[in-house]
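Appendix B. Chain record.
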Amino acid sequence: MQIAPINIFNNKTSNYIQSCKNNSNTSNNFYYNQDIVSFSSKNLASKLPIIDKYIQNLNLCSIIREKESAKLNTIKKHLNENLTIVNTHIKDLTDDYDFLWAIQSEKEKNKLSKIIVSFQMSEPNMSANEITAKIHKIMQENITQNSQELPSLADKKSIKTEYIDKYNNINLFLNEKKNLFTKYSKELELLDIDTYEKLAPIEDKNISLKRTLKLGDNFNRIIAKRAIEKNIELRKTRNDSYKEYYNKYKSVPSIPIGKLKRHAADFADKKVLLTLEGLKEEPF
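C-alpha cells predicted for this chain:
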C-alpha cells in the first residue's frame, strides 16, 4: 500500500518557520535557511515508506535500550543492597579500634601514622580521643569501600590469638564483596551480549535501508525532518541542540555565519537520530 506523501508546508510548520524569521532572538542565530525538506517532491515521495521503516527501526532500538537500562538498574540495585548488608557486618566487627588497627597492613599503618601527625600539627587543640575517632572512621571507610580490589590487611601470622576469629570473619566478608562484584561483572557481560544480539539484526537492516535510500549527505537532515513530522516533540530536541552548537562556536571568528549555521543544523539532525535510537551520544 502506497503511503500518501505529506507536505511539510502545512500550517503548523509554516507558522513555525515564520515565527523563527520574525523572532529577533532567533532570526539570525537559530534558523538555517536550507533546513527545509519537502516530502511531496518527486524524489522523496516514493521513498517515504523506506524512510518511515528506517525511523521505525530506530524506535525499536530505543525500546531495546530502554529495557536494557531497566535491567541494568535492577542489577546495580541488587549489588548495592547486598554490599550494604556485607558492609554492615564488617562495621559490626570493626567497632573495636584496637582490633581494626591490629589488622592493618604495615603500609596502611604508615599512611595512618602520617595522618595522625598531620592532625597533631594542623589541629593542636584536637584531643587524643578525637584523633582516634577520626582514624577509626578512616579505617572503617577504607575497609568498607565498594571496590573489587580488596583492602590490604596484615598477615594472619601477625594477628593476636584473641583477634583471629574476627580477622577470619572479616576476610570472609571481604571475599563475599569480591564475589558480588564478580557476579555483577558477569551479569553486565551477559546483558551486553543479549542487547547486542537484539540490536545487531535491526541495525543491519537499517544499513541496508540507508544504502537503498541513496540520500547522501542529506540523509540525517531528511530522516530528522521526517521524524519530527511524526513526533512533534522531537522539534524541541533539534532546536535545543542547534542552539547548543551555535552558542558554543558563535564566538569563533574563523567560522563564517553560514558555515556555523550549517554545522549547527547537522549537529541538531544527528541529535534527533540519536534520540530516536535511545542514545545520548554515538557509541564507540
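Further analysis of this model is presented in Appendix C.
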